[in-house]
Every structure is written in C-alpha cells, then in structure tokens.
Specification:
2 helices; Alpha-Beta Plaits; alpha+beta
Length: 101
C-alpha cells in the first residue's frame, strides 16, 4: 500500500474555515479522482514550543505507485492550486510518500 502523506500547518485565524472546507470540498474532490481507496484526516495534539497555528495530517491510501503518479500528474496540480487560491499565505504544507511494510 502506498500512503501519500500531507502535513499542513494552518494559521489559527483561518483554521476553522480551512477544516470545514477540507471536509466538505477538498477531500471529496480528491476522493472523486478514484486514485485513492481511503484517507484519514488528523489534527496533531503535540506542539513544538515555538510552533504557531495548528497542524493537520492527511494520509491518502492507494494500492499502487501508478495510481499515485497518475493523481500527482493529472489531478494534484489543479487541486493544490485551488487550495492556494483560497488560503494563500495562511498555511504551509509538506508532502511525503510512504509504503506500508
């Protein structure tokens, strides 16, 4: 199983709106691509001393690198751009790719 992990730090002033948008708009759009079988959406409870905002993790699961690569080339750029347009300057994200052992 391939796990596409997205970790996002969101400024507190938009966090509530961002979470609502993710649950109602973005996550359903990602899943509608049919490249991922399931996902999990988490809020980190531990914080670094100097950390500002709230940090969230989304893990999307798919059964092959081919599906992930297709998502990343065909669907990902437009979905990322939509997020950037809506919340530009209010979040920082980094992405990683994992394989279940």
């Amino acid at each position: 199983m391939i796990v596409y992990n997205v970790t996002i730090n969101v400024h507190d002033e938009v966090a509530e709106e961002w979470v609502k948008w993710m649950k109602e708009i973005h996550l359903p759009q990602v899943m509608a691509t049919e490249m991922f079988d399931t996902y999990a959406f988490y809020k980190l409870l531990t914080r670094q001393e100097d950390e500002e905002g709230s940090t969230y993790v989304i893990q999307y699961h798919c059964d092959s690198m081919e599906k992930y690569e297709r998502y990343n080339t065909e669907f990902g750029p437009a979905l990322k751009e939509e997020t950037n347009k809506k919340f530009a300057g209010h979040f920082f994200a980094f992405r990683s790719l994992m394989e279940l052992i």
